[in-house]
């Protein structure tokens, strides 16, 4: 029987790249995000290219009821989730604390912290029944070190780091692996979303460096799932070679 991975935020970026690598390695994939059309297209494309099955499960992770009902609605076979990639998330704005938009703050906390925890709990309940599983939580270097004008986004990723550690402890007795992945700057739709469609500012994040790609991050995530049952990577930071942490970059001069 094929192994099953559920990926939140599979319509773009890291999630989509994870769908690709897990499907190419024979996993059946449950694809979540809000943009159902993208998930359906991805599902069709994966099934066509790889010998696996896909299941589209669109919902907004902020909607507590939708999260639990959607996970519960999975057909019996699909409930045997082996790996959860708890990835859906976003940054909105890059403003000084006193000037930041409160709607942006609310959306980030509702998505990156509360929605993230709802999904993890709903899926953990299935894994606990089977006494096996692997939860992979997407944090960030922003959850390891606070940077200027990062305030609530950083706080939300610090919460992910804390919840990752908390889950690792509470899941011990259920034989469930928990891994935190903390990438640095990576080219996805992340900066376009953060800067609300301002492509010039979004592009400037990656000026003069050779940033991570979504595939770089997905490859590392996949690697974490290939280790023997008794081995668990608890926490992993990855950056491009030109980035040392959340703040320090070495950039080529832009002429
Ligand atoms: P993308 O914007 O490319 O992808 C984000 C994904 O999250 C999309 O598929 C989006 O789908 C989904 N999503 C957002 N909000 C919701 C929601 N309310 N409900 C369900 N799905 C949602 O960004 P990345 O791939 O870069 O980001 C993935 C994760 O990685 C995020 O948690 C981000 O914070 C983190 N990260 C990103 C870094 C980067 O530099 N790119 C570095 C470190 C961490 P849809 O819009 O269809 O709902
Ligand atoms: C995304 C990486 O450095 O923009 O979490 O915060 S950063």
Bound molecules: NADPH dihydro-nicotinamide-adenine-dinucleotide phosphate, 2-hydroxyethylsulfonic acid
Summarize the biggest pleated sheet: 7 strands, parallel
Q: And the CATH topology?
A: Rossmann fold
Any idea how many domains? 1
As a percent range, the share of strand residues is 5-15%
Distance between the termini: 55 Å
Q: What is the number of strand segments?
A: 9
Residue-averaged pLDDT, rounded? 98
Describe this structure as you would to a colleague.
With 255 residues, the chain is an alpha/beta fold. It contains 8 helices and 9 strands. The strands form 2 sheets. The chain has a 7-stranded parallel sheet, with helices on both faces. A two-stranded parallel sheet has the order 7-8. The model has no long low-confidence stretch (mean pLDDT 98). Residues 140-142, 184-185, 246 line the site of 2-hydroxyethylsulfonic acid.
């Amino acid at each position: 029987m094929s192994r099953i991975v559920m990926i939140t935020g599979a319509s773009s970026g890291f999630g989509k790249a994870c769908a690709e690598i897990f499907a190419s390695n024979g996993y059946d994939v449950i694809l979540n995000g809000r943009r159902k059309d993208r998930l359906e297209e991805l599902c069709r494309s994966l099934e066509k290219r790889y010998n696996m099955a896909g299941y589209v499960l669109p919902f907004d992770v902020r909607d507590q009821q939708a999260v639990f009902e959607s996970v519960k609605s999975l057909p019996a076979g699909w409930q045997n989730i082996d790996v959860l990639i708890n990835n859906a998330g976003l940054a909105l704005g890059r403003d000084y604390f006193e000037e930041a938009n409160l709607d942006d703050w609310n959306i980030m906390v509702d998505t990156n912290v509360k929605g993230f925890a709802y999904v993890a709990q709903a899926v953990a309940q299935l894994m606990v029944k089977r006494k096996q599983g692997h939860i992979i939580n997407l944090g960030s270097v922003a959850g390891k070190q606070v940077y200027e004008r990062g305030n609530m986004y950083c706080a939300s990723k610090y919460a992910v780091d804390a919840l990752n550690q908390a889950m690792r402890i509470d899941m011990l007795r259920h034989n469930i692996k928990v891994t935190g992945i903390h990438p640095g700057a990576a080219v996805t739709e992340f900066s376009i979303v953060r800067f609300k469609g301002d492509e010039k500012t979004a592009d400037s994040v990656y000026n003069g460096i050779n940033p991570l790609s979504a595939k770089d991050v997905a490859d590392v995530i996949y690697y974490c799932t290939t280790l023997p049952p008794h081995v668990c990577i608890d926490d992993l930071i990855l950056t491009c070679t030109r980035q040392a942490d959340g703040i320090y970059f070495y950039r080529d001069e832009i002429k």
